[in-house]
Amino acid sequence: MYGGSPGIKDPEVLTIAARDGRVLVTHDRKTMPTEFGQFILSQTSSGVLILSQNLPIGEAIDAIILVWEASTTEEWINQIMTFPF
Asked: Domain DUF5615, which positions (predicted)?
């Protein structure tokens, strides 16, 4: 999984994650869904997992582990999911 860095625009973070074959983990519920939708029109994404910024760190870790254990790489291609649901 790949976490973005402040100051890097969404399309660039999506490109880096896709290039590296990583699921992008972010708190950005505001702009990422739209940017992701635009991105997958012309490129393939390894997926995006949006975690609530209010989610306690332990629950965030549990969510990431659950996703990792319960899904395959192929299931995440061009998919976006928010947690909590």
From this structure: 4-80
